[in-house]
User: What shape does this take?
Amino acid sequence: QVQLVESGGGLVQAGGSLRLSCAASGRTYSIYTMGWFRQDPGKEREFVTAITWSGGSTYYADSVKGRFTISKDNAKNTVYLQMNSLKPEDTAVYYCAATARAREWVFITTKARYDYWGQGTQVTVSS
Assistant: This one.
């Protein structure tokens, strides 16, 4: 129904920047919220940030506020994650996700509410 493809991951030094992209295809008209989650080996997948497709409202985890910025390009059906001032603890596989059923904070930050997921892109921050 909806397909998501991430790109832009890589290796960067602490303090550096990286921009991730997530291109959506298929029945994109059904998407209400798109977000980013991340997971490192031995840890749970955690919420990073999200944006609503129609209104453009943004949401951020406390750990990335002031450093990460989420944005979207409706014409390209693409969402972006600009990551600045990267820290080694930001190292993880980053996953793009989309849902039609998350309109408020409690659901937007809950991974179980997301129905579509990309395959992930590795981000490694060295010291």
User: Anything to note?
Assistant: DSSP finds one helix and eleven strands in the chain. The first strand starts at residue 2 and ends at 7.
